[in-house]
Structure formats: structure tokens, C-alpha cells
Design goal:
The protein has 610 residues and is an alpha+beta fold. The chain has 5 domains: 170 residues, P-loop containing nucleotide triphosphate hydrolases (Rossmann fold, 3-Layer(aba) Sandwich), CATH 3.40.50; 90 residues, Beta Barrel (Elongation Factor Tu (Ef-tu), domain 3); 71 residues, Elongation Factor G (Translational Gtpase), domain 3 (Alpha-Beta Plaits); 106 residues, Alpha-Beta Plaits (2-Layer Sandwich); 84 residues, Alpha-Beta Plaits. The strands form 6 sheets. The chain has a 6-stranded mixed beta sheet with strand order 2-3-1-4-5-6, with helices on both faces. A 6-stranded antiparallel beta barrel has the order 7-8-14-11-10-15. Strands 20, 21, 22, 23, 24 and 25 form a 6-stranded antiparallel beta sheet that branches.
């Protein structure tokens, strides 16, 4: 174990994590020049197209007689749960900061996560070869943040490979793989009077932490694990301690980055286990794997279960595709532990699923995967967050959309989720951002500075940040600001449900929850947008926004006017009046029985920018 080093790479989006990982694999000879390509670890088509990492990826390398296990992590805030899982499987973290952009919001968030796990942080300034690089300025920011010396910061370029050998040398000098996570070791020491070495040597039998899992169509469930104690040989019977399920380790090995089978996985190693399990629910992320014949007495500390807080309705355009949609989501949920879903039925859209996500990018990725990989044609409703409703009898229920809200006579109060956010931006732009936060019903809690940058901490309701806060923030700061957030509990507010009526019929899928002070403006704005996307009919169609029985906004889509008098060649007014009256009666009848086909754009009208 003295020769094993486990580390991950953490950074803000686009600061060069995957590119540095490429150079490490090239330099250590893990991948030959012929097999090398950019962002080698980003294997998903969407990852390569968008240039972002979505799933964490482990890889084993060899450098100067040492085995290095690297986990490449995502940078976007929506996938920070992937980062927190990686950090629990390693002893060191390479912190990459862009020489042209300096410290950003997600850099800070990831540093805090790494410090919580008590990891050794190796600071790296990437992209030093760019003309706009400000190495002294960024170095000063890192020193200010970590309290390290200037000598500890490595200058590198992921593109040219400059400085990457120094990073690998520093990892080798760093902490070796430990046989116990620190808190488990402390607990073991507290119970006994022996030394740490003795606890490791004579401690409990095999324990491995599952930090990721996915479903392979041909091989079943594949687990990515970090072995803390003991060993898992090929064909051993394994037990998941939390789920209580047993399975077989059909194949074990390491990733280089292809699967390389081995006879066994030993303590300190990061590798994979191909099991005979049929679903990842039998081996959840964060569970402890042990040997069924000699199970461990105590499980490893797992992860807190991640809860989605953005919900949207996914409906197939044709109801025939509902079964395909359900099967597709079940397959995606096998490899995405943060995805939650339940059936939903709408009078207008038919059968669909209400799906929970960690943010709008997460939702966008899932929607694109459903359309591309499973050839589905989908209608996605406006994203909303979940609310807690306290009833008069004291019962608290959770609702995921405005359509689920009970009758207001039974409701005592409605609580909405608030977030704690952090924005990093140039000092000169503070006024614009504070104004934007106030418009979103938020308030600033603190203001601090890192060299020439300001850090604004604020609190705001989640619902107001959902749709276009990030876009508005980028506009207000000319693209220089970065934003990170986390959930901060529920608060009771004066919230109302705004319904939208099309031709007198309430469309549940369009209903939204909002603060009473914003209801009128949202009602007027949404009816105007609906007027643009709902097609004209042969009769007049009223678009209305209402709170309960009170109409707060109205727009009218005018009827197509067919000139029924064109066939009369005389100037007989009575005949013209007779024909026009007949047309009027026909339109009134149409209005009573006519069914308006609402296009899919109407359900995402809230996302449309002005």
C-alpha cells in the first residue's frame, strides 16, 4: 500500500481537468500515442459535444514504480454530488485553477469539500502558456485561499504537457493509500488502546466503498470501488451491507482506462467489479461491499443521499411512446443515482413522468439523452421546485408541482426551498449583481474579497433562480461572474398558485407557484408569450391567468375571418347580414365544442427569453 497513491482532479468548469488527465495518461504510458485523443476519459457523446465532464471516471496509471489511481470529476454545480463521492475514495486532490480566469465559484466549493474530507490539496495553475495568463495574480489568490507557500504551487499547461511531470512527482510525494477512512480509524482507536498500525493490521475483514455504479447491457451491474481493507478475489461471493443483497464478483480489475481484469483487488486499490446483479438499486452508491463468507462487522461511512430539487413533467408527443419513455428513464436511472421519477397524468398531455433533477443542466442532459439515444419525441413542462404544504390539521405534505396543491381552504401555510449562493466577480460589478439578487427576492448575507475579486454570499428562493438567473448574471457581469449554490432549508412565504386558462379550460400542466407580489406580472407576461405560440383558430380564443376565481390577466387570440359575403354580387344588405349572422352562430358553436391543440412550445414558455 506504500506504493499506491489515490487522487482526484477538482476545478471549476473549463479550467482543464480532463486535458491534464490526458497528459498524465500520455506521460505515464498508460495510453499509447496511437490511441490518444482529446478528453479521452469523456466517453459519452454528449460530454464530447458540449466539452464538459458529466460522469466521474477512474483510471489507473504507473509512474516511477508507484501505482496512481486518478478520478476525473465534473466541474458543473449540477454534478457536484459526483465530486463529493470521488473525494471520499482518495487521499489527495489536485486543485486546477485557470491562469486567465483565477479562482471561480466552483473552485471554492470543491476546495471546501476537499478540506471537509481532510485531503492533501496540490494547487496547480493551468494554461500558463496563454497570452492572457496572469500567473502572479492567480498565485496570490491561491495563497490567500489555501494559506500555502508560492513554492507549493505548480505551473502547468494541459495543452503542451508542460509541468505535468511535476504534478505526478508531487502526487508520489503525497500521502499513501490508507487502510481505513480517517473517521473509521479514529473510532477504532477510541475503542481500543492499541496503535493505528495494529488496528490496520488486525482490523475487520474486507471492506470496499462503492463510489459509482452503472448498468451494462451485456454484463449487468458494474461497480467502481475503493478497497479500504482486505481483498476481493475473482468469483468471490460479495455482500452489500446496507442493501443486504448478495452477488458474485464475476470479474475484478482496474481501469487503464479500458477494463483490465485481475485475479483480485487488494487494499488501497481503486477498481471495478462486474457483478451478476440485475439493477443498481441492489448495490447503491455509498454502500459497503464485503465478502459474504466473512462479513465485516461495521460498514464504512457512506454518502448522504442526494435529493433532487428541480422537477419537470416529461410527456411523449404520442401516447403510444409512454412505455418506451418509462423504459428509457429506468435505464438512465440505473447509472444516475440522482434521478428520481414517478408517473404523472395530465388531461391535456396524457400519461407521462414527473422527473426530479439536481439543476437545469442536469435536466437538459437527460432530455437530450432521451431524444438521441432512445429516439423519443418529448414535451417538457416548465421546471418547478418542490414545496412543503402545512394543512390545517398540522399534517405536512410535499408537492412537486402547482397542480398537486390541495384546496386553499385546507392549507395553513406553504413553505418554499431557499438556497445559499456564492458569486465571485470583479469588484467593479458588485452593484449590478446586488440589484439582480434583490429583484429575485434574495438578500446579500456577506461580502468579502480575494485579491481583485469580490465574493458575494446571498440567500434567495430556489424558484426564482430556476429559469434565467444564470443568464441574467452573465449579462450583468459581461460573463465574468461565476455562481455556486446549495439548498438551505424551507421557509414559509405568501405563495399563490397561478392557473392559465385557454378558451375557458384550465391547463394543469401550465399552472405555476409564485409569490403573491409577483403573480400579476408573471400572469401578464406568460399570457403574452402564450399568445405568440398558440395558433389562431376559426373562432376567438381567450387566454387568461387566474388566482382561484380571480382573473389577473387576459389576452385574446383573434379569429381567422373568412369573408362569407364574397359570393354575393349584389348590394343586398339583408342577404349579407343573414350570412354574417349564420357565420357568427357557427363560430359560437365552434367555441363551445372546439378543442384547441396546444403546441409543445407552450409548456416551456416560461423558459423563453424576451
Amino acid at each position: 500500500m506504500d506504493k499506491i497513491r489515490n487522487f482526484c482532479i477538482i476545478a471549476h468548469i473549463d479550467h482543464g481537468k480532463s486535458t491534464i488527465a490526458d497528459r498524465m495518461m500520455e506521460l505515464s504510458g498508460t495510453v499509447s500515442k496511437r490511441e490518444m485523443k482529446d478528453q479521452l476519459l469523456d466517453s459519452m457523446e454528449l460530454e464530447r459535444e458540449k466539452g464538459i465532464t458529466i460522469k466521474l471516471t477512474p483510471v489507473t496509471m504507473h509512474w516511477k514504480g508507484y501505482t496512481l489511481n486518478l478520478i476525473d470529476t465534473p466541474g458543473h454545480v449540477d454534478f457536484s454530488y459526483e465530486v463529493s463521492r470521488s473525494l471520499q475514495a482518495v487521499e489527495a486532490a489536485v486543485l486546477v485553477v485557470d491562469a486567465t480566469q483565477g479562482i471561480q465559484a466552483q473552485t471554492l466549493a470543491n476546495v471546501y469539500l476537499a478540506l471537509e474530507q481532510d485531503l492533501k490539496i496540490i494547487p496547480v495553475i493551468n494554461k500558463v502558456d496563454l497570452p492572457a495568463a496572469d500567473v502572479p495574480g492567480v498565485a496570490a489568490q491561491i495563497i490567500n485561499l489555501l494559506g500555502c507557500s508560492r513554492d507549493e504551487i505548480i505551473e502547468a499547461s494541459g495543452k503542451t504537457g508542460y509541468g505535468v511531470d511535476k504534478i505526478l512527482d508531487r502526487i508520489v510525494e503525497g500521502p499513501a493509500a490508507t487502510a481505513c477512512p480517517s473517521d473509521t480509524l479514529q473510532a477504532a482507536l477510541a475503542k481500543s488502546s492499541c496503535s493505528a498500525e495494529h488496528v490496520v493490521a488486525t482490523g475487520p475483514s474486507t471492506r470496499a466503498l462503492i463510489f459509482d455504479s452503472y448498468f451494462d447491457d451485456y454484463r449487468g451491474v458494474v461497480l467502481y470501488v475503493r478497497i479500504f481493507e482486505g481483498e476481493i478475489p475473482k468469483n468471490a461471493e460479495i455482500l452489500m451491507m446496507a442493501a443486504g443483497t448478495k452477488g458474485l464478483a464475476l470479474e475484478v480489475g482496474v481501469l487503464t482506462p479500458k477494463m483490465s481484469p485481475q485475479e483480485k483487488l487488494s487494499a488501497g486499490q481503486i477498481g471495478y467489479i462486474v457483478t451478476n446483479l440485475k439493477t443498481t438499486r441492489e448495490a447503491r452508491v455509498g454502500d459497503t461491499v464485503t465478502l459474504a463468507k466473512a462479513p465485516a462487522s461495521e460498514a464504512l461511512p457512506g454518502y448522504k443521499h442526494v435529493l433532487p430539487f428541480v422537477y419537470a413533467g416529461f410527456f411523449p408527443v404520442s401516447n403510444d411512446q409512454y412505455k418506451d419513455l418509462k423504459e428509457a428513464i429506468e435505464k438512465l436511472a440505473l447509472s444516475d443515482s440522482a434521478l428520481a421519477y414517478e408517473p404523472e397524468n395530465s388531461p391535456v398531455l396524457g400519461f407521462g413522468l414527473r422527473i426530479g433533477f439536481l439543476g437545469l443542466l442536469h435536466m437538459d442532459i437527460i432530455r437530450e439523452r432521451l431524444e438521441r439515444e432512445f429516439n423519443l419525441d418529448l414535451i417538457v413542462t416548465n421546471p418547478s421546485t418542490n414545496y412543503e404544504v402545512v394543512l390545517n390539521n398540522g399534517e405536512v405534505i410535499e408537492i412537486k408541482s402547482a397542480a398537486d396543491l390541495p384546496d386553499m381552504s385546507e392549507v395553513l401555510e406553504i413553505r418554499e426551498p431557499w438556497v445559499k449562493g456564492e458569486i465571485i466577480l470583479p469588484k467593479s460589478m458588485i452593484g449590478n449583481v446586488l440589484d439582480l439578487i434583490n429583484k429575485k427576492r434574495g438578500h446579500q448575507t456577506s461580502l468579502s474579497y480575494i485579491e481583485d475579486r469580490a465574493v458575494i454570499d446571498f440567500e434567495a428562493p430556489m424558484a426564482n433562480l430556476l429559469t434565467d438567473f444564470y443568464d441574467q448574471l452573465k449579462s450583468a457581469t459581461s460573463g465574468y461572474a461565476s455562481f455556486n449554490y446549495e439548498l438551505n432549508g424551507y421557509r414559509s412565504e405568501d405563495l399563490v398558485r397561478v392557473d392559465f386558462l385557454v378558451g375557458g379550460h384550465k391547463i394543469d400542466a401550465l399552472s405555476i407557484m409564485c409569490h403573491r407580489s409577483e403573480a400579476d406580472a408573471i400572469g401578464r407576461e406568460t399570457t403574452k408569450k402564450l399568445k405568440e405560440v398558440i395558433p389562431r383558430q376559426n373562432y376567438e380564443v381567450a387566454l387568461q391567468a387566474a388566482i382561484g376565481a380571480r382573473i389577473i390577466a387576459r389576452e385574446t387570440i383573434g379569429a381567422y375571418r373568412k369573408d362569407v359575403t364574397v359570393k354575393i354580387h349584389t348590394g343586398d344588405r339583408d342577404r349579407k347580414a343573414k350570412l354574417l349572422e349564420k357565420q357568427k352562430r357557427g363560430k359560437a358553436r365552434m367555441k363551445r365544442f372546439g378543442k384547441i391543440d396546444i403546441p409543445s412550445e407552450a409548456f416551456t414558455v416560461m423558459l423563453k427569453r424576451d
